[in-house]
Specification:
Protein name: Class I SAM-dependent methyltransferase
Keywords: Methyltransferase, S-adenosyl-L-methionine, Transferase
EC number: 2.1.-.-
InterPro entries: Methyltransf_25, SAM-dependent_MTases_sf
GO molecular function: methyltransferase activity
CATH topology of the largest domain: Rossmann fold
Order of helices and strands: HHHEHEHHEEHEHHEE
Length: 265
């Protein structure tokens, strides 16, 4: 599962016994040599699916890590790309990779990086598009509610949030038991060791994503199949792209309840 440049099992255990933030600081130099980095095929499929939904001027990568999602945003967004993460180590790697890629060769605006908690973003109405890749397993349900609420506020009216969600493995399959065992081990670790390391694979199915996005005030929540990532035996896609929009502002001449200050952001 790991290349020779990746972390050893001992290093992974040591990282998991710290916190999420400290663990990723330690993992950052080798992160792109692990299976945890979003595969290029997922990034390419996401780019294809979003291409016809623009145009987009400003893009935000939530929990950007080492910056894999910038490959999507720099191809779609014309004016600005911003990556947010809590891990200083991951942001340092993202900055180094962006510099190595170079603006001309990578195309699109160079990314700006900000160390911040994605549950309390310092933006209001700033972005046309927000994406995230593989990060939601690091958030418990209450944290995801805060994350989606602050992401909605960071989007302009009519702005789009997009992220891929893989289909769950078949019950009883090797993949099913692998994820079940991982989550069980993490729950045991967090019951016995502090600070907690939140990383669960089975807490964010598509049905939960729809419900939490709707509760956060997003509308038009839907999915697009990503068929290039493969099909299940029943013909359903193995991965879908979840799309949710911040509602547009109501027309000035429409009657309705008074708008709050937050609604004007």
């Amino acid at each position: 599962m790991f290349s020779p440049q990746g972390p050893s099992a001992r290093e992974l255990v040591g990282q998991a016994l710290t916190s999420v933030e400290r663990g990723y600081d330690l993992l950052a130099p080798a992160f792109d040599h692990t299976p945890f980095r979003t595969p290029d095929a997922v990034l390419a499929a996401t780019t294809r699916a979003l291409t016809g939904l623009g145009p987009f001027d400003r893009g935000l990568d939530l929990c950007c890590g080492t910056g894999a999602g910038f490959h999507v945003l720099r191809r779609l967004c014309r004016r600005a790309v911003v990556g947010v993460d809590r891990s200083a180590g991951m942001l340092a790697q993202a900055a180094a990779q962006a510099q190595a890629a170079g603006g001309e060769r990578a195309g699109g605006p160079p990314p700006a990086l900000l160390r911040a908690d994605a549950r309390a973003l310092p933006f209001r109405g700033a972005f046309d598009l927000a994406v995230s890749f593989g990060a939601f397993g690091h958030f418990l349900a209450a944290d995801r509610r805060a994350l989606f609420a602050t992401t909605r506020a960071a989007l302009r009216p009519g702005g789009l949030l997009a992220f891929p969600v893989a289909a769950p493995p078949r019950v009883g399959s090797a993949g099913y038991w692998l994820l079940w065992g991982f989550d069980a081990a993490m729950r045991a670790r967090n019951a016995l060791w502090h600070p907690p390391f939140v990383m669960y694979y089975r807490t964010f199915p598509l049905s939960v994503a729809r419900a939490e996005l709707t509760a956060a005030g997003f509308t038009g929540v839907r999915t697009l199949p990503l068929p290039e990532l493969g099909l299940r035996p029943d013909g359903a896609p193995r991965c879908r792209l979840v799309l949710a929009r911040r509602p547009p502002e109501p027309a000035a001449d429409q009657a309705g309840p008074p708008l709050t200050r937050r609604d004007h952001t």
